[in-house]
Amino acid sequence: MDVKTDVLVIGSGIAGLFAALRISEFAEVVLITKKEKNESNTNYAQGGIASVIDPNDTFEKHIEDTLIAGAGLCYRNTVEIIVKEGPQRIYDLMNLGTEFTKKNGKLDLAKEGGHSMPRIVHAKDLTGREVERALVQQVIENKNIRLIENTIAIDLITEHNMQQLKNSPLNNRNCWGAYALNCDTNEVLKISSKATVLATGGLGQVYLHTTNPKIASGDGYAMAYRAGAKIGNMEFVQFHPTSFYSPKRNNNSPAFLISEAVRGFGGILRTRDGEAFMPKYDSRKDLAPRDIVARAIDNELKKRGDEFVYLDITHRSKDEIVDHFPNIYQHCFENGIDISKEFIPVVPAAHYSCGGVVVDEFSRASLKGLYACGEVSMTGVHGANRLASNSLLEAVVFAHRAANNIKQFIKKDAAIITGIPDWDDSGTLSADERILITHSSKEVKQIMWDYVGIVRSNLRLERAERRIHNIFTETEDFYKRTKVFEDILELRNICACAHMIIKSAKGRKESRGLHYTLDYPAVSPTNKFGDSILQNLHP
Ligand code: FAD
Ligand code: SIN
């Protein structure tokens, strides 16, 4: 089926929804999302959105905190953009119906690791759900936005899909929309657009243990890579220090997050025999940036042979805990732990991708007409390690910027191209060997967790590269022979992301931020590695 629109937005998290709403003010939007409309990483966000709201806080302090966490790789100009435009976007979210927690009539500001001031705007400990609720409501009511659920983008449409344009130069290519599988009808849609916004979120599902829901299979990174767009800094995968440890957890479901705001509220990390270990690792103790805390936990676990460490918040009163963290309290309680009396067992889990589709300060990717915002993008804001609660902020600021730029772009430069071929699946068969997919998917996640996790080495990366290459080849072969379905699309994307993470990690012969390798334990003093940029030269 053919769908034509001014702007195609892929993804319904904070970035996609906010971009769609802004674009709907001047153009028609088709918004596709692969599951139900609110299923996204955004929906699970707990801590909140960092922004300079307190009169005692300053832009300079927030900029400095972000640059320090980013370990020398942040772009100062984009950091300044998110920090300075942040407060206005917070008020926009409120005007769109988001209800943040207030104290005495003012926004209540929490503290998190790496922040020198309390500046986290939040809705109790369910910030993402509240933002998602408000934005989805606005989108549903908007006549210029056509929302299509259960529809998974397969690949971007560029010159590489068109026989007569296939050999055009890579530095002058366009994006004209995407092919997408409607999982309700099993039909592949050809969606042509003047501009396309990738807002497909993260890739936590590449790893065995992750806080990310199933949708986070790295589809956007993989589609952009296959289409020849530039991808940067994929080695910087952030592991959140504290996900709830449960021996009963099924590895297919995400690990429940224990928000960093709990440490901001006084939570202390302890070994199983009660030692508060963070002072040994960093003068900021439990509120050091995430890379440092996750590595410290990993080290304690390996040294002691333990499966988890504890997070202790028992010194705060039950009333305070329940008031600030009702969702966390309830989850732990249902799992047999009253956190006002008992320590919480926690382990690190893959959480966030700092790298992504390289974009400029207007969210423009390296293909004309392609924009990326939110977690899938690399704006240069996070460098080698993201500061807590800067992700939702970056997503909303850059979604706004993408919309502003698209307004000019579709007026002057863009056109819907004709002659885009229909999806061709002639000669393919329906898959009857789904076990191959589930097995390969488990294998990739285990390999990435064991060899490309918090601590890496040349040997581990080489071993991972060889094994992922085999699974990648088998998966491509299976994909070419089969009618598309969700699991094969996701596995294909997970493999592509694993490949990019390993390739970038192998190239960085130093330890910086989230990339720590036993073979090069020091930061290169000259910063000679800069960003790791990948590009598929033969899309
Ligand atoms: P998402 O919110 O993940 O949305 C992506 C959308 O794209 C989804 O709708 C998905 O279904 C859709 N999609 C994906 N692939 C396809 C496809 N192929 N076709 C169609 N649709 C597709 N950050 C903070 O700043 N503060 C926090 O407190 C915070 N807490 C977090 C807690 C948890 C448990 C997690 C997992 C993350 C947290 N983060 C937090 C990170 C933050 O939530 C995410 O980085 C952010 O929500 C990403 O927003 P997004 O719009 O880019 O992507
Ligand atoms: C959290 O609440 O700890 C998550 C915050 C983030 O990922 O920025």
Features:
binds flavin-adenine dinucleotide, binds succinic acid, alpha/beta, single chain, 539 residues, seven-stranded mixed beta sheet, Methane Monooxygenase Hydroxylase, Chain G, domain 1, Flavocytochrome C3, Chain A, domain 1, four-stranded mixed beta sheet, 13 helices, 20 strands, FAD/NAD(P)-binding domain
Helix-strand makeup class: alpha/beta
How many structural domains in the coordinates?
3
Return the average pLDDT rounded to an integer: 95
Radius of gyration, taken over Cα atoms and rounded to an integer in Å: 22 Å
Molecular shape? globular
CATH architecture assignment of the largest domain: 3-Layer(bba) Sandwich
- Give the full name of the CATH homologous superfamily of the largest domain: FAD/NAD(P)-binding domain
Described by strand count, sense and barrel closure, the largest sheet is: 7 strands, mixed
CATH class membership of the largest domain: Alpha Beta
Distance between the termini: 24 Å
* CATH topology type of the largest domain: FAD/NAD(P)-binding domain
Please count the helical segments: 13
By DSSP, the count of extended strands is 20
Structure ligands: flavin-adenine dinucleotide, succinic acid
Low-confidence stretches: none
- Helix content bin: 25-40%
Work out the strand percent. 15-25%
